[in-house]
Amino acid sequence: MLQYLKKIWFILGNSKRQIPLLFLVFTISSLAETLGIGMLGPFFTIVSDPQIIEQNSALSGIFGALRISSTRGVITFLCIFIAVTFILKSALYFFSKLYILKFSHMHRANMIQTLNHAYLYSDYNYFISKNSSSLIKNITLETQEFCYKILLSLLYGVSNLFILVFLFVLMAATDLLLLAATLSALLPVVLLIYFMRHRLKRWGRKSSEALQGIIKTLNHGLGGFKETRVIGCAPYFEAQMASNAKQYAQAASFAASFDMLPRILIETVLVVFIVSFIAISQLFLSRSTDLLISSLSVFAVASIRLVPAASQLMSTIGNLQSTRHVPDILYADLKEIEQRFSVSSNSSLGSRERALNHTVAMDFQQQIRLSNVVYRYSTSLDPAINDVSLEIQKGESIAFIGKSGAGKTTLVDIILGLLTPQSGDITVDGVSIYRDLRAWQNLVGYIPQSIFLLDDTIERNIAFGVPDHLIDYRRLEQAIAAAQLEELIAQIPKGIHTRIGERGVMLSGGQRQRIGIARALYHEREVLVLDEATSALDNETEKKVSEAIQALSGKKTIIIIAHRLSTVEHCNRVYLLETGKVLRSGKYREIIAS
Ligand SMILES: Nc1ncnc2c1ncn2[C@@H]1O[C@H](COP(=O)(O)OP(=O)(O)OP(=O)(O)O)[C@@H](O)[C@H]1O
Questions:
Q1: Ligand 1 centroid distance, CA of 407 (Å)
Q2: Which residue puts its alpha carbon closest to atom 30 of ligand 1?
Q3: How far is the centre of ligand 1, averaged over its atoms, from the C-alpha of 404 (Å)?
Q4: Could you tell me the fold of the domain covering 109-341?
Q5: Model confidence over 278-301: pLDDT tens digits?
Q6: What's the complex ipTM?
Q7: How far is CA 532 from CA 173, 185, 399, 551, 568, in A?
Q8: pTM of the model
Q9: Superfamily name with CATH number, domain 367-593
């Protein structure tokens, strides 16, 4: 339990500063609530028997001091006093609830931002070790579960606990026997939750897994729409979706119906107890009717608050059980990212963020040198890149070729600074890129095989990540011309303002690649890393893409992963990779000849 609370405390981050204030609000609103209810008993007693004021020295003292002598005056005063107290209490109750709701919703908004920030700034290794549907689920579902079923539930639970304690004190002062009866009414609910705790946990975990399955199936089925349609495997994804949706529905409906149980149980048991209490009091204990009416009036009104307060407190306990997995998931993610940040850059999240955000590029005048670079994926025994050393002069174009699995993409990911080698170094003019990775990345433009395109205009896709008001149109035009996109843009009515659809569905493969080239050129990167598209581009388009790249030879330093030998003819050097090593290197003709 302590570990669980510690995790919640950690996830709360800066929001925990507001907790003392929240408790203060709860205490005041609970006190006002109890005071309002507590005054009803004496009011009913005085109304039914005004003589009691004269008999009670404290009451006659108070009303004497207030100069109220007539019964009419006392009743009017008490009526106004109770009405004002209730209005104040209700207003306080409403605003305290509003405050709690605001706090929880704001905390969820903060958590979404924190997780989104942490995922965006996580290292690439962490990212590829995760499934994107689990990250999406954490940001959408788990933050919701944390804020509503844990945080909000806990805050309501604590506020109800305050109310219950005050109500119990009030009841104890009114009638101890009735309090004991009421308390024992709550016992079955406590026992029920205790015996159901494992099931509650299981339902919570199952609904979370099922939701992740739903997101994953959507990603697979709709994300690969073309393949799904052509292969005709829609029923396969439908079956997956049906199983996940059913599991979610079952787990969620069990959890939701359990949520109602405390209220139903408490109401039933309480009514049975009160009725039995009246009967026993009258039949066996022969208590005075006036006393009974006064006690019962307090209990009746207290029960109006007691039933929702107790049932909400019980449902808090139930919610905490069914969401037991949520703090574990969020804590594990936030902690792992925090640790990776400090291990990989020896700095805090904030300073890493600053390090990743600056825009100064590294000075590059002479050459890039890879020295004895070794990289092994954490899941493999053998290194994917094994002792690679090479040198690229400024303005040169080089290509990596080799069989599938030879290590080309891994080597390029290392050069891009996405993967950090276990040993060896990469230097630019003698300076290690790991001294300031961002400065190195500000020098590099990456054009992957399948360009990631936004469902937005051509203009925003080229100026990727630059706010509209900061787009430099002169640079945009130059990039469009160099990437041979002018003809396409001239043909479409809205030109650069044309939307290209989700993942660029409205463009051809070659056009998408050229948008990628224009993007790298717009960002004026000195070194271009290009993963050549393997999809069979038609001759005309392939020629255009190759021309666009060749036109940059000499002006930019170009690193290509080549899948077709025909496209590397113009390169200064070609490296043939095999099982993570450079097997041979030289001019295109030398490699072909060997
Ligand atoms: N995320 C990963 N985790 C574990 N092993 C990986 C990972 N990515 C790649 N590998 C392994 O590393 C080796 C090199 O893979 P890499 O993708 O670099 O080859 P490649 O030459 O680019 O292949 P292709 O031309 O097919 O893209 C392969 O054996 C591959 O299975």
A1: 6
A2: 405
A3: 8
A4: ABC transporter transmembrane region fold (1.20.1560)
A5: 788 777 776 666 667 766 776 676
A6: 0.96
A7: 82, 73, 10, 16, 10
A8: 0.63
A9: P-loop containing nucleotide triphosphate hydrolases (3.40.50.300)
